[in-house]
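Two quick folds needed for the group meeting slides. Do the first one here.
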Amino acid sequence: MLDVLNIASRNLLRYRRRSLLTLLLIVIGMVAVLLFIAVAGSFRSMMVGQITDSILGHLQVHRKGYVASIDSLPLNLNLKPQMVAKVEDALKQNPAVETWSPRVKFGGMFSNFAETTSIRVNGIDPALEAATAPLLSGRMTEGEKAGPLVARGQIVIPLLLARGMKTKVGDTVVVVATNRDGSVNGKTFVVRGILESATGPGGRDGYIHIEDARELLRMPEAEVSEIAVRLKDFSRLNQAEAQLKQALGGLTNKEGKPVLDVHTWADLSPFSSLAKMIDLMTLFIKVVLVSIVLVSVMNVMIMAVFERIREIGTIAAIGTPPSSILSLFLAEGLMLGIVGTVAGTLLSLAAILGINLWQPTFNFGQQQNLVMAPTIAAGDVLTIAVLVVVVAVIASLQPAWKASRMDPISALRHV
């Protein structure tokens, strides 16, 4: 085998320019793919992190039908106390769950005693919400970021509402809401802070203490609209979702159908489409890499066979078996793949390191100057490397097969 590799390397060096151009194509393809995976993966992780860690959490549990009607924030589809207890028991028993946060959500009217507008209100437990959505407080543009997000009697309002209503931190405002029975109630709050949206200039979500929300809505204690869940390891999202669905599947209605839904962040956010697009583009780039390697290696191997027909006839005439001739040309393709892969991987890792040292920034929604920190998993590097080497060998297979099946007499007559 070492003799075959030695001869193969000498044959490649006989046509240095052509071999170098082929290796250059493989290296460029490797660098393009690995850099794209690293940079796009960094952006995807940053985007998903902003959505999950400041708004949604990793998972959410709702009553069946709530998400389909979520625009109207239906109070009649809240989780009853016994449902909440069932969900919390399941979460406590699931080792993948880090923490969770109950929320009461409703639509209401916001007034600064001069103007009135609509607002979506989230009643939260400040400590649990901070653990479940740790980036939430970082979206505060005005007000004290230290300490609990809200206390009893306080409200955090969205930035656009504050600007439109000319409301400042420390102002007294009123929130009016209609409860499930149709009665109207109002409650005064002091503006604790002003919150910018994580995804863009829109957003009308305000935050108050969950006990204030229940008082305003005259709601039974322990009733909630949803439970947001944070996992210890985000990569186990699908597994945790399946486990939670199985654990909650026993809670059914009179018809025997489940009464609870479990949704991932992707089920609840339109930005999941962008994440899927990034995954699709990554697949497309991998296909392009395969095409580059396949065409470049096959081209150089076909030319090698064509230019060495008499040489192939000579070694076949002196008794070299077809399998050895086949191995010789496959070894040339293998060496092109290995050398190109090693060089491309080293250049890619150096480029990724350079980007991390450079620390370029980008904006996502209202989040400014997010630092790009591309990383790539060893598994991704290994997968791409194996793919390139395998495709290089496959590309060499047809020319190698043709060379091994040549008739020695016809080959020696070739001019």
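Then this one, please, same format:
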Amino acid sequence: MSWMKKSAVLASITSVALVGAACGNDEGNGATDGDALSGKVVMDGSSTVFPIMEAVAEEYSMEQPDVEVTVGVSGTGGGFKRFVTGETDFSNASREIKEEEAAQAEENGVEYTQLAVALDGLSLVVNPENDWAKDITMEELNKMWTDTSVKTWKDVRSDWPAEEISFFAPGKDSGTYDFFDEKVLDGADIRQDSQLSEDDNVLVTGVAGTKGAIGFFGFAYYVENQDTLRALNVEGIEPTHETINDLSYPLSREIFTYVNNASLKDKEQVADFARFMNENAADLSEEVGYVKMEQARYDENAKVIDEIAGE
């Protein structure tokens, strides 16, 4: 079973705990015998980043079975709500932290570090029965998602059919929504008849089951569901590993995890997991459908992790 197929099942619950053999350990922080570690690593946030971190956590549990890694999927905004109060060690994000979130972290004495983990291309997807729309412009996307007078595909482009449009989008706690808001909506309100969900698999199902539908989410969810969805070119550029890697695709972006500096310094298992994540994120991001960064970026992450962890 692929990582993404597992995610389709797991993302429907609040979080998934990936626990090794000695799951009875509650609060252990550090080494037991030799290089064996115990304790907990608590992570929450973006559903876009979730498949990467789920894969990392499963691989890590094979090396450190006594460390319990919990990966939540409450959305970027939901993850930051917990992170800025010091409740979690890591917060996965498909956007950068907002000023108000950073201010809350400062008020609560939470110092943190941003680590980019991979590249993503937000993908606009339609039902395979849609045989008319192949390419779309940013201006047309803005019109579709903000102008409530647009009811059919013909209202977007005159040579498209009068097929009613159904709109599927991530919820407003999602970093993917925030990115779309910035790049496409230009700060305007998304149309009220959009069907919003924090669960990307719900969006996949909605678009796949509705002929006139359009939706958007991270590239990996499109890649995993190409048999039931079709991606639109944006401004003439197809979302692919190559166009996302060179950032020529207009909706390319970095995706992140944020780590609590105190956790990195004081919890040996958190520092160990951070290093493991950074060493394996490139390969595992590709495996689950995202695009790895240049190795130099991961090398930079490694230096930062070591500096903060005190090694």
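Slide caption for protein two: The CA atoms of residues 42 and 88 lie 5 Å apart.
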